[in-house]
Amino acid sequence: MKVPKQAQLLRIFIGEDDRADGRPLYEVIVLKAREMEIAGATVSRGAMGYGHSSRLHTAKILRLSEDLPLVIEIIDSEEKIEAFLPVLETIMTSGLITLEKVQVLQYGTNGE
Q1: Which member of 15, 77, 110, 111 has the greatest number of CB atoms within 10 A?
Q2: From which domain of life does this come (predicted)?
Q3: Are 110 and 43 in contact (CB under 8 A)?
Q4: Confidence band (pLDDT; 50, 70, 90) for 100?
Q5: Is 110 within a domain?
């Protein structure tokens, strides 16, 4: 896969406990992005955060894994990201989605 130098970054903020069809939402999103041949996706787990409900989610020693925040970052061309957005609408019922233009400096290794 190739990624243009001028690409888009799709950032999705959800909770670790969020589900779609009984499966973890982050997993459904990443697998769908891969199925649509989007260049790359990464899921990061946050140590602490809150969203529209203002309920604090944190990973403390006495309360491990209290619906921790997850951030999914997906990068590809504007066209591929735009095609993925309607798919997200069918999968997600809550969360935050942001979009920004990025400049890709390297993708893969020199041999690929």
Answers
A1: 15
A2: Bacteria
A3: no
A4: very high
A5: no
State the helix-helix crossing angle for 25-35 and 78-91, rounded to 10 degrees. 140
Confidence of residue 3 (pLDDT cuts 50, 70, 90): confident
Whether residue 19 lies inside any domain: the answer is yes
State the total domains in the chain.
1
Report if residue 6 sits inside a domain.
no
> Mind giving me the DSSP string for 78-108?
HHHHHHHHHHHHHH-SS-EEEEEEEE----S
With vertex at residue 36, the alpha carbon angle to CA 32 and CA 41, rounded to the nearest 5 degrees, is 60
pTM of the model as a whole: 0.87
Residue 55, domain CATH: 3.30.70.120
CB-based contact 8:77 (threshold 8 Å): yes
